Write the structure tokens for this entry.
Amino acid sequence: MWQQVIVAVIVAAAVLHFCTRYLPAAWRRQIVYFLSRRGFDQNRMARLFRTQSSCGDGCSSCGSCDSAPAASSDAPPPSTPSQRVIKLHVQR
């Protein structure tokens, strides 16, 4: 009896993880809409299913979508590099 309950909880957690991580964004939005219509908190469900705007969707909140400035611009170069490089040293 307890084994079946524990297995059911583990399977439910796995399905929830799959739904929040690997489903297409449109499906996740529909799930959030469905759950919010059933009385769940929409903001909490949107955070759980990661349907809020994020970096890369064109929201311009992080600045990563901006184009690089032209070379003839008078703006000084940024003090911190925009990309980090990890150097690997092979020892033989």
